[in-house]
Amino acid sequence: MLDLSDCFELEVIPPNTLSNLSMLEELCMGNSFHHWATEGEDNASLVELDHLPHLTNLDMHVLDSHVMSKGMLSKRLERFRIFIGDVWDWDGVYQSSRTLKIKLNTSASHLEHGVLMLLKRAQDLYLLELKGVNNVVSELDTEGFLQLRHLHLHNSSDIQFIINTSSEVPSHVFPVLESLFLYNLVSLEKLCHGILTAESFRKLTIIEVGKCVKLKHLFPFSVARGLSQLQTINISFCLTMEEIVAKEGDEFEDSYTAIDAMEFNQLSSLSLQCLPLLKNFCSREKTSRLCQAQPNPVATSVGLQSKEISEDELRNPLQLFCEKVPA
Fold first, then answer.
1. How many CB atoms lie within 10 A of CB 327?
2. What is d(CA 25, CA 58) in angstroms, rounded to the nearest whole number?
3. What is the pTM of this model?
4. Alpha-carbon gap, residue 172 to 150, rounded angstroms
5. Is 234 among the domain residues?
6. For residue 303, what pLDDT is reported?
7. Long-range CB contact pairs, 37-41, < 8 A, 24+
8. Could you tell me if residue 39 is inside a domain?
9. Rounded CA gap, 316 and 283, in Å?
10. Residue 98 belongs to a domain
11. Which segments does the entry list as coiled coil (predicted)?
């Protein structure tokens, strides 16, 4: 193990120093050296790490995505915290053993194969200022992010859909995702375009959405019916949002089936702030049994005022979520 964490002044590692540590299993460089060079320059390069056959644990920070190695050890790494870009710091609590944070200074289409492999294996993923990505799943991981638990998407102006099932993507995606944070995605029109299986998002407990100004609804019914673990919904400054749950295409032609299938039994916090066009929680003809058998009141915040849902509203959630939200 080589631990260089918090060596703030470390700027030079002579070339081939790291590649000669052939038995190295762990390399910790968090909050430390980040002046990686391209091969042949007078500093350590990421290519050297590809020559460490036993390396399984890696913490490192790369300022420029252009110096990323094509291999990047992605298949061998069992634990990693890898930050790409010039905005990240190392403070905070890490929820997973495989964390990847990316801010690109170029189009995402230029990502090296090794980075794309890390995307597939990440459990905690931060994507900031993605350029040229319209459809997250089909362009970054066509397998559907099968290992991802936490996803943060911020300040990416080109994203139109998180999932578009008309592209070559599986019918179930994000099967173990626990939290989803979407912020300032100004072109985002839908979380999901098309119909997914109920296996998608089935582990989701937290969703927070802010400043997605083109987003008219959050979930299609095909996704909402599988959200039995959802505990927190926080939506703010989505200026065109009309409903939280809406019908997508021809899904659920039988309205009674839809009612029976969609329950948010674990929901404990609901915040809806600055949504001037919001009309319903869900379509009047497709109602949800929100908080059925929920023992405690749901903490809610609607508009600029907060309140608790009364016991009567819990027994009759249609009163709260199928009437037009007052202005």
1. 6
2. 9
3. 0.85
4. 17
5. yes
6. 56
7. 37/67, 38/66, 38/67, 41/15
8. no
9. 16
10. no
11. none
Q: Are strands 161-164 and 179-183 parallel, antiparallel or unpaired?
A: unpaired
Take residue 323 and report the two structure tokens written for it: 């009437």
Question: What percentage of the chain has pLDDT greater than the value 70?
Answer: 78
* 47, 56, 83, 96, 279 from 179: Cα distances, Å: 34, 26, 20, 12, 26
Question: 221 by DSSP, 3-state: which?
Answer: helix
For residues 294 and 314, is the Cβ–Cβ distance under 8 A? Answer: yes
Structure tokens at 168: 């070559």
Residue with structure tokens 């202005």? 327
Domain encompassing residue 221: 129-321
- Side chain identity, residue 231: Q
133 within some domain? yes
| pLDDT classification of 302: cutoffs 50, 70, 90 | low
Q: How many domains does the chain have?
A: 1
What DSSP string describes 99-135?
EEEEE-SS-GGG--HHHHHHHHH-SEEEEES--S-SB
Compute the distance between CA of residue 200 and CA of residue 222 in angstroms, rounded to an integer: 9
| pLDDT digits 0-9 by tens, 13-43 | 999 999 999 999 999 999 999 989 876 678 9
Q: Are strands 217-220 and 269-273 parallel, antiparallel or unpaired?
A: unpaired
- CB–CB of 105/81 below 8 Å? no
Where is 282: in which H helix or E strand?
strand 280-282
140 token code pair: 């970054």
Residue from 161, 107, 95, 114 nearest 132 by CA: 107
Among 193, 267, 253, CA closest to 223: 193
| 47: Cβ contacts below 8 Å, ≥ 6 apart | 19, 39, 69, 71
Q: 78-105 burial, b if ≥16 CB within 10 A, otherwise e?
A: eebbbbbbeebeeeeeeebebbbbbbbe
